[in-house]
Design goal:
heterodimer; A: four-stranded antiparallel sheet; about 50% strand; globular; B: mainly beta; 22-stranded antiparallel β-barrel; five-stranded mixed sheet
């Protein structure tokens, strides 16, 4: 009994002590412990990086990069507003002193004031929203896969004021003069059209037939429009690979809304992103969800496919700085842990790299 | 993207006081018949805690997930109220807990999991929680631990019937009927229950702009279960048992706080049948048993246009013997054949797998039976491929009068699931089993000074798991690979102090566990996850309970604490710790042969706002009232 009596308080004590110690310790380190630079308080210059996060895990995030000070801040929205951004951040738009973050799975757009990144409003009840394009200071267009439409958004009241039906899986848009060209990438399936909308009437004015799955669209220095069609992989009913639809680059004359040239990029590889140099003479394509290797450059004057990549590496997305031509490329790694941002100069030489959030897909240049 | 989604979804898919409580009320305390020789005689050295019958009673209107989450060391991962619940023992994965129903592993061969929300506590007579791996005795899946669920015959108990109704918050209600007849030589019982709940509880959506008050949508849940048991004593030494269990489930899946909406739902239908014949002589015991399981799972998502049907059929045949080779030693050996079939459009064709295993244990003890030691080994052939042999050695022994020392070392394994092997395009048919070594050393105290009863355990454990299967991107698709290595270690403590006299019983108990379960460097080298705690494994977890019984009124309060848990593999995000309270009060009245029991439960007593899985809302304070009528007639 004596021996037992000394054993009993030890057990009790260990249980109680451990529980109280752990309580304290855990409540202290509550917040994220990632590489945050809390000294920076102004976000209206530099670069914003959209990190999709893992599907249905609700861990989308936005990062900020200051290219002058070479400082990167992760999980910006969550740190400042003490709540998660949402599920799958598809794109970010900066306009009118605000940042608009389009959350594809949460079906909402979170709006913050750019200078302090504090939440200011939300637009809800969307239907798989993808990208936003401002068409005036008070109006923006939003592509949505859920209803294969472009929604008209009033930026003053943050409300939806109209719907324009386009092709399936509308993705990126380009504005030129008074028209917006919408690339209908097909969404989960395929499509091969570009829809043309008049910004004064918010009506569909033309539909242009293109290659398979037009994904991205840019304008060159002469005003011509270039569309990147990613092609497709074909499977039979038992999921065996049968073949590919090739990826192509097409040139559109906006005066006639017709295709004036088609260049095959690859028989069996499917790049999804298209960018252009600041002087509008060199196009860049590559990256996407199919593991496309490299970023290639191609001239608008005589578009012929190069056998060697301008920048090597497998990227999920990339963007070209419209002021200095630097290329920011995003690598998603193993899609479960943080990705990497690579900064290249306009000649394709790497400058530096930084760890960003989960599945980074694009950057936005604020100024 | 669709393939990716489909494959990810199908993967995802996460008490106990070893003493008796005698009561004055009529309870169908079934005689514990020894029908599980390995569990009862040869599982030496692992910590095994039997769930007290009073706890089983307290949770008779609830599910196994509720009981384990409230009263055990086991970490239960639950996607909200009534949602999918899986268990993690000692920092291992959700598929590393073998759940044995009368000796047969219930884990589904297609995804390796078992939803604990679909096991009603009222269908099980005895629950034992075995911590630590036990591959040698119980085969594939027994890596983190084993949950033993047993049904026992009620020979000689007479005629008993119970009718129960309960109603609770969020429009939840449950009706159940049990009828059993137990004569000297045969015993039959039928059990049925039906449960439905709207689950439309209010919660603060702290993930949205303005933190609005929301109501959970698309959360309806309905379950029905039917169980038949038949036991016959065919001779003085022989017994034949037959059991059949049907379970039907419908669960609408609510959106998490970061999702906008969800219309998905899942329907499950499980058919489980088993039969066992045993002959229990003094020197030689023989057991022959067969089981057949047919699981039909149907998942629908109207928004994403996904309709996925999976059917898994398992046939198990097993024979074993227990032979008393001498006064101080026993031998157990047996053979098991398990055949699984998986049928779904998600595989290119229906898949089969047959596994045959031979196992044996040798137990030796000293003449006073104060020291016991068991050496076991199991060898399984997966088709024609042999799995690595899995031995184990364990011992238990009294060192000083109230203190016992126990220890165990065992090698464990888990065969890959059909989804990992055969999923369209992404499956990897070359996957090997996962392997692990687990060790534990513990002290147990058992003392009964006067009117007190004191029991306690402290156990240190250590285990490594290698070739853990995870899905990784490989080019355009994700495929499963045997890559991950995990090292788990920690300490578990529990203590139970009970006082009873003629009119009053008070019991105070608590348990606490410290678990570090970290990713180890793989063959590919160190990365951001190396050395990091696995997601959703809390380092600190504990609960304490006070139970009092006085003049037929029973009161039980449990306080549960769960420490912070990381939600990303590189430990950059975590979920806050939380603690919740649970209160149960009931009163029994006996009138002649009829007994009436009224129970009132207050769950989440302190209205804690917490999350078990990130951004899945948990209900705030909620109530349940149940009434049970029992009739017992012994001839």
């Amino acid at each position: 009994m004596k021996r037992f009596k000394s054993f009993l308080p030890v057990l009790c004590l260990s249980v109680v002590l451990a529980m109280s110690m752990s309580c304290k310790k855990d409540k202290d380190d509550e917040t994220n412990n990632n590489n945050n630079n809390q000294n920076q308080t102004v976000y209206n210059t530099g670069v914003l990086i959209a990190n999709e996060g893992v599907y249905q895990a609700g861990n989308a995030s936005v990062s900020h990069y200051d290219p002058v000070k070479n400082v990167l801040t992760n999980s910006l929205f969550e740190t400042i507003n003490s709540r998660p951004l949402g599920d799958v951040l598809q794109s970010v738009l900066v306009t009118g002193g605000k940042a608009y973050m389009v959350l594809n799975v949460s079906n909402k757009i979170e709006i913050v004031t750019l200078s302090d990144f504090k939440e200011s409003a939300v637009i809800s009840n969307l239907n798989s929203p993808r990208h936003l394009l401002p068409v005036s200071t008070s109006k923006a267009y939003l592509t949505e896969w859920g209803d294969n439409a472009v929604k008209v958004i009033d930026l003053a009241s943050n409300s939806i004021t109209g719907t324009i039906n386009v092709g399936s899986g509308p993705e990126k848009m380009l504005m030129t003069d008074e028209s917006v060209y919408v690339a209908n990438g097909g969404g989960w399936g395929t499509d091969s059209t570009v829809s043309v909308i008049s910004t004064s009437s918010d009506q569909l004015t033309a539909t242009i037939g293109t290659g398979i799955s037009p994904m991205d669209i840019v304008k060159d220095h002469e005003g011509y429009i270039w569309v990147l069609c990613k092609g497709a992989v074909q499977y039979d009913s038992l999921w065996n690979l049968i073949g590919h639809d090739p990826s192509v680059l097409q040139k559109i004359d906006p005066g006639t809304n017709t295709i004036i040239s088609t260049t095959q990029l690859s028989e069996d590889q499917h790049p999804e992103h298209l960018e252009i140099s600041p002087d509008g003479t060199t196009l860049y394509y590559g990256a996407g969800t199919s593991g496309f290797s490299g970023i290639y450059s191609i001239s608008t004057a005589s578009p012929s496919v190069s056998t060697t990549a301008f920048i090597t590496g497998t990227y999920y997305g990339f963007n070209v700085n419209p002021v200095n031509g630097e290329i920011y490329a995003l690598n998603a790694g193993d899609y479960q842990t943080n990705g990497t941002l690579y900064r290249y100069n306009s000649s394709g030489t790497v400058i530096n790299s930084h760890t960003v959030g989960l599945i980074p897909n694009s950057v936005v240049f604020i100024d | 993207m669709k393939i990716l989604f489909l494959s990810l979804w199908s993967i995802l898919p996460a008490l106990v006081f070893p003493q008796e409580v005698k009561r004055d009320t009529v309870i169908l305390l079934r005689e514990v018949e020894v029908n599980a020789p390995r569990e009862d005689h040869f599982a030496i050295g692992n910590k095994i805690l039997k769930v007290d019958s009073s706890v089983i009673r307290e949770f008779s209107t609830a599910t196994l997930a509720d009981l384990l989450a409230c009263r055990s060391h086991i970490s239960v991962r639950s996607y909200g109220s009534g949602g999918l619940s899986s268990t993690s023992i000692r920092g291992a994965g959700s598929y590393h807990t073998a759940v044995l129903w009368n000796g047969f592993n219930l884990q589904c061969p297609t995804d390796g999991g078992l939803n604990m929300t679909l096991i009603p506590v009222s269908f099980i007579d005895n629950i034992s929680l075995q911590y630590g791996g036990s591959g040698a005795l119980f085969g594939s899946g027994a890596v983190g631990g084993v949950i033993h669920l047993n049904n026992s015959p009620g020979f000689g108990k007479g005629f008993n019937t119970t009718v129960e109704g309960s109603y609770g918050s969020y429009d939840s209600h449950r009706e159940a009927v049990n009828i059993s007849i137990g004569r000297a030589k045969w015993s039959n019982s039928v059990k049925y229950y039906h449960y439905a709940a709207d689950n439309d509880f209010p919660f603060i959506n702290s993930a949205q702009f303005g933190k609005p008050q929301d109501t959970l949508t698309n959360a309806f849940h309905e379950q029905q279960g039917l169980m038949f048991e038949n036991y016959v004593r065919t001779g003085t030494l022989h017994q034949l048992s037959t059991r059949f269990w049907y379970q039907k489930n419908l669960k609408y899946i609510p959106p998490s706080m970061v999702q906008d909406r969800n219309e998905a739902y899942q329907e499950d239908e499980f058919y489980r049948g088993m039969t066992e014949w045993n002959r229990k002589g003094h020197i030689l015991k023989l057991y022959a048993r067969s089981a057949w399981f047919d699981y039909r799972i149907s998942y629908h998502d109207p928004i994403l246009q996904i309709n996925s049907d999976i059917r898994a059929i398992t046939l198990i045949n097993e024979a074993e013997t227990e032979y008393k080779t001498g006064k101080t030693h026993d031998l157990n050996f047996g053979i098991n054949n398990t055949t699984d079939k998986g049928i779904t459009d998600n595989y290119t064709i229906a898949q089969y797998r047959t596994r045959t295993a031979v196992f044996g244990s040798f137990k030796i003890h000293n003449p006073k039976n104060t020291w016991n030691s068991v050496l076991s080994i199991r060898e399984e052939w997966n088709g024609k491929e042999p799995v690595k042999p899995t031995p184990s050695i364990g011992f238990t022994g009294k060192i000083v009068k109230p203190v016992t020392l126990n220890g165990n070392v065992s090698r464990n394994y888990r065969v890959p699931t059909f989804n990992d092997l055969y999923w369209k395009v992404c499956g990897n048919p070359d996957l090997k089993p996962e392997y692990g070594w687990s060790e534990e050393l513990g002290l147990a105290v058992n003392e009964h000074p006067g009117a007190f009863s004191i029991t306690g355990h402290t156990t240190a454990f250590n285990s490594t798991i290698t070739d853990w299967i995870i899905w990784l991107p490989a080019g355009q698709i994700w495929t499963p690979q045997n890559i991950k290595k995990v090292w788990s270690r920690g300490i578990e403590n529990d203590l139970n102090i009970k006082y009873r006299n003629k009119s009053l019983m008070i019991c105070l108990s608590g348990n606490y566990s410290y678990t570090k379960s970290t990713d180890r460097e793989t063959d590919e080298g160190a990365d951001a996850t190396t050395g990091m705690q696995l997601i959703y494994v809390p380092v600190h977890k504990g609960n304490c309970n006070i139970t009092a019984e006085y003049k037929g009124i029973y009161l039980s309060y449990t306080h549960n604490f769960t420490g912070s848990r990381f939600t990303t593999a590189d430990n950059t995000r975590l979920l806050e710790p939380y603690d919740t309270g649970q209160l149960s009060i009931f009163k029994s009245i006996k009138i002649n042969e009829i007994s009436v029991r009224i129970q009132f439960d207050i769950n989440n007593t302190w209205n804690e706002i917490y999350q078990v899985m990130a951004w899945y809302a948990m209900p705030q304070r909620n109530y349940r009232l149940s009434i049970q009528f029992s009739f017992n007639h012994k001839k």
